[in-house]
Amino acid sequence: MSRMIFVNLPVRDLAASTAFYVALGGTVNPQFSGEKSTSLMFSDAIGVMLLSHDHYREFTKRPIGDARRDSQAMIALTVDD
User: Which residue, 20, 39, 49, 65, shows the most beta carbons closer than 10 Å to its own?
Assistant: First the structure.
């Protein structure tokens, strides 16, 4: 099995966040997308899962940080121009 990276991100506005990541070159994977989340692939090995806050809370009891105020992770992705 090949190695893959999936970055899971809580988002306030799923539609706007999906549009942003599509503009960066992500391709929506409808098999794992729905009303509460969007799966995007940037390559065969790198994916991003955008989850509504309610859906994200199904996986953790910890509070979701406010991205405008808190720093919890630094993730760097490169895209072709």
Answer: 39
